[in-house]
Amino acid sequence: MEYNLIDMIACPVCKGDSFSVIIIDKNEDYNTGYVRAVTNNKQNEEKDIKAIKNGILLCKSCERWYPIINNVYTLLPDSYRNENNDKKFLIKYKTKIPDTIINNGKPFNIKTENE
Amino acid sequence: MINNKDLRDTYNKIPKFYDRANALISFFQDTKWRKKLVTDIFKISRPEKVLDVASGRGELAYIIKQIKETYVVMTDYSENMLNMSIVDGPKVMASFENLPFQDNTFDSVISTFAIHAADNIDGVISEMERVSSGTVGIIALGKSDNRLYRFIAGLYLKYLQPYIAKLAGEKPENYKVIYHIYKKLPLNSTIREITEKYLDTVKFDEKAFGSIYTFIGTKKKNKIY
Ligand SMILES: [Zn+2]
Q: Is residue B223 over pLDDT 80?
């Protein structure tokens, strides 16, 4: 049986279960063991994604963003997040991340660094 | 003052420490006890989707997959542990007090050698119950209600364990953290009360002078909380 992780997760802060998925890059060597995303998730328009290597999950209820780094979904509550690492992630992939997250992302963004 | 965050940081910095510490606190029975827990859970249910809470490098997931090919989601607070995991599969970095999953998602939710490091054990068990639709299984460091057992386990964890670690060429300070965690733990009777609040008990066993307990429970038929 195959399952999609994206259909199981909930935001650790607001428990919302609807996410937008932003893909930064995909796995070249995708196999069924890796994190899979979105083949039948109704909230998402991307139908052909087999596996996200790096990306962002954006909670549609509270608008917090959560990074997917090297196939690992990171879904930590604010107090457990590492602000420096999160900001570094945004800086590293700035061109591939929507401006709304870069400038107004919750809980961290790089608006000032960006100016 | 050593706190639970220190233990988490120690785990994160030295993933190898986690394995050794589990071996030491379980008198080298950790793998055997994990296998027994999984076999017992498979006897009462046939889980297809399992959540491994505070998975470390996936030792439990590995055992589950050996018994039966199962969809196991690994979740841990430590990025290093997840990146060094010994099994392929979906990985989520999360805090076990705020499991980022929808209600009733997994057929079985299991945690081995981890929840003693939580600041709020009640909160972890309540979260495990929430995301499970069937069974919950736990192996963790416990503390006997029997004073003599407590004394023996305390001596072992405070003096003998760091000493064995030192003989093995490791830093005893890291292992002393475990004694501090043990000191702060509630008694096993309190853990039992917590599990009974959220789940129907199938099994609650104490081992190694009560310093380890194994719990298996199922979702309550009639929720009263
Ligand atoms: Zn949210």
A: no
Q: Is the pLDDT of residue B221 over 90?
A: no
The CA distance from B91 to B174, in Å, is 26
Q: Which domain holds residue A28?
A: 3-114
Q: How many CB pairs under 8 A join A and B?
A: 71
What ipTM score was computed for the predicted complex, to two decimals?
Answer: 0.83
> pTM score, two decimals?
0.88
b/e code A25-39 from CB counts within 10 Å (16+ = b): eebeebeeebbbbbe
Look at B102 and A74 and tell me if their CB atoms are within 8 Å: no
Nearest beta carbon to residue B88 from set A8, A33, A77:
A33
**Mutation target vs B (from A1, A2, A9, A35; most B CBs, 10 A cutoff):** A9
| CATH superfamily entry for domain B4-219 | Vaccinia Virus protein VP39 (3.40.50.150)
